[in-house]
Write a structure and sequence with these properties.
68% helix, 2 domains, 470 residues, disordered C terminus, alpha+beta, 8 helices, Heat Shock Protein 90, two-stranded antiparallel ribbon
Length: 470
């Protein structure tokens, strides 16, 4: 099944839209995964920071409880110290479970745990010493333990600061990456939507253009059908007119010829001129009808092309004899041939229309007594017919219009004519795929050369009619 152009465009556009949607979905899915990973990392970083803060707070409470218990001996302070120590243990365990910590952070965490264990040992030693001995020497030992605990606390604070700074930097990096991913996804989605809108607009435009083209094609088909119908009507009209006119014209011509034959020995020749006028007018009217019908058939594509074997030289000689006898020609008609012809495969009716019109124009537009030459040349490819006169010639600026129907030159005033002869010649030459050359100068004469290609009868495929040309 052959697809129309707009159908192909719509199919390609839908495929492009689906492809764009797939790409946008793929990019969005990948971007969403990255956003989820960044969010998890941010959440873990927040948890680490929170745990570190809780750990430091618990360590401070444990130190405060120890000192309170040693100075006051209250059991509440000891209980507070023990609870804070347990919280520190819990916070350390939670820190060990965070996979987000890198190698450097893990090392720092191990150092933190070691220092914390050392400080817890000092806490226990201080409490046991207080419970066992409260002498002055014991108090000095307590001060030494406290000094050592403060040193370890400062190291722990330094480690906590380093861990927090690193985690904060990672948090900022994760947030920055998340923002970039969001912007990237937003850009991709906007670009995808824009491309889809552009493709959709293109589909709409192609569909609209296809509809407009289809409408124009339908209007053109309608116009062509109307013109064809008008051409057929015109052809039928001229065929009817031709039939209706030719019958009385034939009666007029035959009757005048019979009268001429009967009366030519009974009256003076000068008295027969009216009969000759009737015959010439009837012939002129018949030729006009024939030319009109030929042009109408050519315009309707109904002009027949029926080539047959023809003796060209005999055809030309008979044509000149016919002109010499039937048109009362007062010119010197000459015929020459060059090359070998024999019998050629041409359409005699079309050739007669060509040569008779060219000869008639040459005689009509040439002064009486001048020479009109018909020359034929033959070669293996084509036949060349040449008609040359010594008449009024054709102005240079009018040569482009002489083959238009009803066109007559500005220098033919006083010479009767219809302007159809050369139009008929052009159509008959065209239907035989030939060409015409014109060489003319005002006051010096005109020469027409008609080139008609030879037809190889054996090259015509069987079953293909040659009776008409569309």
């Amino acid at each position: 099944m052959k697809w129309l152009l707009e159908e192909k465009a719509i199919a390609c556009s839908l495929a492009a839209i689906l492809l764009l949607l797939g790409l946008v979905n793929l990019v969005s899915s990948k971007n969403t995964t990255e956003l989820v990973e960044n969010a998890n990392q941010v959440q873990s970083t927040y948890n680490v920071l929170g745990t570190l803060t809780d750990f430091y707070a618990a360590m401070s409470v444990a130190e405060s409880g120890r000192r309170g218990y040693i100075f006051s001996g209250r059991e509440e302070e000891l209980s507070r110290h023990q609870t804070a120590v347990e919280e520190m243990e819990v916070e350390l365990s939670e820190l060990q479970q965070y996979a987000v910590l890198n190698g450097v952070q893990q090392q720092r965490l191990q150092q933190l745990e070691q220092l914390t264990r050392q400080r817890m040992v000092l806490f226990e030693q201080s409490i046991e010493l207080y419970q066992r001995d409260r002498s002055l020497e014991a108090m000095q030992t307590q001060h030494a333990i406290t000094d050592r605990s403060v040193q370890i606390r400062e190291q722990i604070q330094s480690l906590l600061t380093e861990i927090k700074n690193t985690e904060n930097q990672q948090l900022q990096d994760s947030l920055k990456q998340a923002r970039q991913n969001i912007q990237y996804r937003s850009t991709i989605e906007r670009a995808g939507i824009l491309l889809i809108v552009v493709v959709a607009c293109g589909v709409v435009w192609v569909f609209y253009w296809g509809q407009r083209r289809r409408q124009q094609f339908q209007e053109l088909e309608k116009t062509l059908a109307q013109e064809q119908e008008l051409s057929n009507l015109k052809l039928r009209l001229f065929s009817m007119i031709s039939h209706e006119f030719r019958t009385p014209l034939s009666v007029i011509l035959v009757s005048s010829q019979l009268l001429t034959e009967i009366l030519e020995f009974k009256i003076e020749p000068s008295q027969l001129k009216n009969l000759y006028r009737i015959q010439n007018s009837a012939k002129l009217m018949n030729r006009l009808i024939t030319d009109l019908l030929t042009l109408t058939r050519a315009e309707a594509g109904k002009l027949e092309h029926q080539p047959e074997w023809l003796d060209i030289e005999e055809f030309c000689l008979n044509l000149l004899d016919d002109f010499q006898s039937s048109h009362a020609v007062q010119h010197d008609l000459q015929f020459t041939s060059q090359g070998e012809f024999g019998r050629v495969y041409l359409d005699e009716k079309l050739l007669y229309s060509i040569m008779s019109n060219l000869l008639l124009n040459a005689i009509k537009y040439s002064p009486s007594g001048t020479q009109v030459t018909l020359k034929i040349e033959g070669d293996p490819e084509q036949i060349i017919f040449e008609v040359e006169d010594q008449g009024i010639g054709i102005p240079e600026e009018e040569k482009a219009n002489i083959f238009n129907p009803f066109y007559r030159g500005q220098n033919v005033e006083g010479i009767s004519g219809s302007g159809l002869g050369l139009a008929v010649v052009s159509k008959c030459v065209e239907i035989q795929k030939g060409r015409i050359e014109v060489n003319s100068h005002v006051g010096e004469g005109t020469r027409f050369r008609v080139y008609i290609p030879r037809i190889d009868k054996d090259a015509i495929p069987l079953g293909i009619p040659t009776g008409s040309v569309d």
